[in-house]
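Async update (no meeting this week)

Hi team, since we skipped the sync, here's where things stand on the single-chain job. The sequence we agreed to prioritize is pasted below, unchanged from the tracker. I ran it this morning and attached the output directly underneath so nobody has to dig for it. Comments welcome in thread, and please keep replies under the output.
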Amino acid sequence: MTKADGYLATNMIGESVYNGTGDNAENIGDVNDIVIGNDGTVKAVVIGVGGFLGIGEKNVAIDMAKLDWAEANGDRWLVTNVTKDQLQAQAAFDRTPYDPAPASVASNNTTAPAATAPADGTAAAPAPAERNVAANPAPADQPAASDTAAAPTDTTTTAAIDKTKLTEIPSGELKAEELIGTKVYGANDENIGEIGDIILSKDGKVDSIVLDVGGFLGMGEKPVAVGFDKLAFMTDKDGNKYLYTKFTKEQLEAQPAYDKSTYSDKRNEQRLTVQ
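Output:
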């Protein structure tokens, strides 16, 4: 099996971080989230340090380049040369710049304000939380819970979601943890699946989004890798997230399935991009 050239976000989130590879290596924390910049680069990895069973933990952000994988006896873990004391001495970040603006102050434009980086230049990252999967939209024969009026009939509206009430999220404000499970809509505003994973390149950039297409109740789904560029991530006033693509369900179902064991060699074949 050919080793893939990159990492999956789901393989990193929740992974333990050690300060070495020896038997006396200390567990200094766990990965809680990954911060993606406007250019698709992973700006920081969020590590929770201290506390007990996640209670009283402090979140700090470190450079992706300071982490590496170590393997031995079939086990695998993340290693950094940053000590636990150094992490605990680092200022905790504020996740506020990454949260969607309240509806009362949000701009009518489709582009939300860019997040403000901390003064020390260290990329901020979100606080630890259980995976925040975007809420499912209402069934096609029912109006969305937040909309009591009948949905407009123009092409900007789906049966469940009024796109005129959604705001685009700049990629710099996206958090990997919150993208997993996000509902995906296609060229005809058809619900075509959900985000199953994120493929990171070896240099820390987002290479592709893995969409789980088709199936029923999670069974029989087909994973399809889609290029990160030209994707529109939207949010509603309640913070629920949605991904809109230019692809139809038929295009995605006709695409070769994503296979992590062969993706490195067959990336051009397995990765669907907007021309």
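Quick observations from my side:
The longest helix spans residues 84-89.
The chain is about 10% helix and 30% strand.
Reply here if anything looks off.
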